[in-house]
């Protein structure tokens, strides 16, 4: 999915999108014995400005049989969105990011050279797990030798064994 951003609403920080958001996902459709058939997707989300309003939809796609493929009307938009999906740098496999849990925070230890981090870099972490860090707390980081250490305020008593999410690195003037 697209890289989210931190959005401050008063003294609360949320993770989300200011503009349109597109969530692309692979779907494996089982063999269909009867055509035409409907594929149904149930979706729910929040739309937030000053307040968050829950939304939901039941979407349907009619699948028919034929001898010709027809490109989706959304093809160009889908291809453009695929270019927005975050990618790890080539060196990331040789120098993985590590983390350690402290009493009040989780510290990400990021190899500076593999991720091209310098004094002008702005580094943020967006967790995939919901209750790992306090998203409303500011993230702070510093260069420490060959690493960049990013501190994330913990949101629960037990230290996580794994940590999954998106790490964004941009220059201060971006």
Distance between the first and last residues' Cα: 21 Å
Uncertain regions spanning at least 5 consecutive residues? none
How much β-strand is present in the residues?
35-45%
H and E string: EEEEHEEHEEEE
The counted number of beta strands is: 10
- What is the count of helical runs? 2
Helix content: under 10%
**Given the C-alpha coordinates, what overall shape results?**
globular
Average pLDDT number: 81
Q: How are strands sequenced across the largest beta sheet?
A: 5-6-9-8
Radius of gyration: 20 Å
Largest sheet: 4 strands, antiparallel
The helix-and-strand class reads mainly beta
What's the arrangement of secondary structure elements?
Blueprint: E1 5-9, E2 12-16, E3 37-48, E4 52-63, H1 75-82, E5 98-101, E6 105-111, H2 112-115, E7 121-127, E8 140-144, E9 147-153, E10 165-171
Antiparallel strand pairs: 1-2, 3-4, 5-6, 6-9, 7-10, 8-9
Explain how this protein is built.
- Strand 5 (98-101) and strand 6 form a beta hairpin.
- The chain starts with a strand and ends with a strand.
- The mean pLDDT is 81.
- The chain is built from 2 helices and 10 strands.
- It is 7% helix and 41% strand.
- The chain is globular, with a radius of gyration of 20 Å.
- The protein has helices spanning 75-82, 112-115; strands at residues 5-9, 12-16, 37-48, 52-63, 98-101, 105-111, 121-127, 140-144, 147-153, 165-171.
- The strands form 4 sheets. It has a 4-stranded antiparallel β-sheet.
- The chain has 174 residues and is mainly beta.
């Amino acid at each position: 999915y697209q890289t989210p951003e931190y959005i401050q609403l008063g003294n609360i920080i949320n993770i989300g999108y200011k503009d349109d958001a597109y969530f692309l996902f692979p779907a494996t459709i089982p063999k269909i014995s009867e055509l035409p058939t409907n594929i149904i997707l149930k979706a729910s989300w929040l739309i937030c400005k000053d307040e968050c309003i829950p939304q939901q939809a039941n979407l349907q796609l009619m699948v028919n049989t034929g001898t010709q493929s027809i490109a989706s009307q959304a093809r160009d938009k889908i291809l453009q969105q695929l270019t927005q999906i975050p990618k790890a740098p080539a060196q990331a496999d040789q120098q993985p990011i590590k983390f350690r849990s402290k009493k009040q925070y989780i510290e990400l230890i990021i190899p500076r050279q593999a991720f091209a981090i310098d004094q002008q870099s702005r580094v943020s972490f967006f967790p995939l797990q919901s209750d790992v860090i306090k998203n409303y707390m500011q993230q702070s980081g510093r260069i420490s030798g060959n690493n960049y250490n990013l501190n994330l305020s913990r949101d629960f008593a037990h230290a996580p064994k794994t940590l999954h999410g998106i790490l964004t690195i941009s220059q201060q003037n971006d």
